[in-house]
Amino acid sequence: MDITGVIQRESERGYPEVVRHYRWLHQHPELSYREKETSAYITAFLDREGIPYRSAIGGYGILARIEGEKQGKGQCIAFVADMDALPVQEENEVEYRSLNDGVMHACGHDAQAAALMGAVKMVHSLRSHFAGTALFIFQPGEEQSPGGADLMLKDGLFRDYNPAFVVKQHAYIDLPAGTVGFQAGTIMASADEVHIRVKGQGGHGALPHELNDTVLAASQIVVAMQQLVSRRRDPFDPMVLSFGRFIANGATNVIPGEVILAGSMRCMHEEERRKMLQLIPRIAEATAAAYGCSCETTLPEGYPCVISDETITGEIRTQAVAYLGETYVSEFPKRMTADDFGFFTQLYPCCYYRFGVAAEERKPGALHSGTFLIDEKSLHTSSGLFAFITLNSLKQE
């Protein structure tokens, strides 16, 4: 069987339906861990197609499965798409703009889910051509800790399976529609929230000797954290520690009794991450104590680094070239953003690649912005490539 030709024809035939899925999902976005209607829409689709699945995994997560009917012992492989949206007000003037005020698919998870739906349908229709098991995961809660990937894994996502590898694709505004980009190794950082509460005796700003200056103490903690990054980490391991919240609810002449700090730490090495998570509370408490203040530090469990296995990524990239052509396959740079796909990469060989969504005539808008909008032609690539990888990986010679 000419897998490339078959998938291209099936992708072309199913493209209008994938677009309809995408537009419905875009129009009905739901925040992390609230994806009730999204999950219901996807399970209704699976029911219509006669595709078996388990639902309510780790919340609203879904695991669809397709068993190949060809003779032979095939392996098990898995594919992942996110479902959740962001607390962003949509600014695009399109007929399928968000109907939920203040909520928007501003990161492309609608495209991911729609593409996976298209791939599931194609693979199901071609199940007589391969052996083994293909798993398709619709995941909630990527955008917000503790992470839907972690919750699904802990809820027995793969209790009956041991996938040989797991693949995820994500929308990418820096590549044109019809192209994909790969990168191997540690490609995205871990992500940990840092919450610090500084307490002391507040009082009149003109009488600093009679109080504890919580504002000064908190300011010095922020500075100390930057010195922690520059002086205590291995300089060969990238790290970012940024504070975006500093709440000192006093007045021009009032030093408050409490100051709240909140930030985010990103690391590209798990050992370095663990070391920093131990140092942050110690440095914060010692700095606060120097100004007569106390300090409470909270570090919720965050996301681990995303690691694209060298071997698996090389194999998937080769398949992408076979399906799309060398011209349409490139690389993307490593960066300090995060994805809870890292939980999968800690347990299984994985590949995380990006599919281009930029249109020739306009830019898609920045990720997580109210103007983000994909070129729908990218759905051809994202659904078709997933189906191609499935059949090519599970074919029997």
Q: What is the gyration radius calculated from CA atoms?
A: 24 Å
Shape, please?
Answer: elongated
Superfamily (CATH H level) name of the largest domain: Zn peptidases
- The strand order across the widest sheet is 1-2-4-3-5-16-6-15
SSE string, helices as H and strands as E: HHEEEHEHEEEEEHEEEHEEHEHEH
Please report which band the strand proportion falls in: under 5%, 5-15%, 15-25%, 25-35%, 35-45% or over 45%: 15-25%
End-to-end separation in angstroms reads: 10 Å
The largest sheet is: 8 strands, mixed
- The residue ranges in which pLDDT falls below 50 over 5 or more consecutive positions are none
Descriptive report:
Helices cover 35% and strands 25% of the residues. The protein is an alpha/beta fold and 397 residues long. It has two domains: 276 residues, Zn peptidases (Aminopeptidase), CATH 3.40.630.10; 109 residues, Alpha-Beta Plaits, CATH 3.30.70. The strands form four sheets. The chain has an eight-stranded mixed beta sheet, with helices on both faces. Helix 1 packs across helix 3. It is elongated and about 85 Å long. The termini are close together. The model has no long low-confidence stretch (mean pLDDT 96).
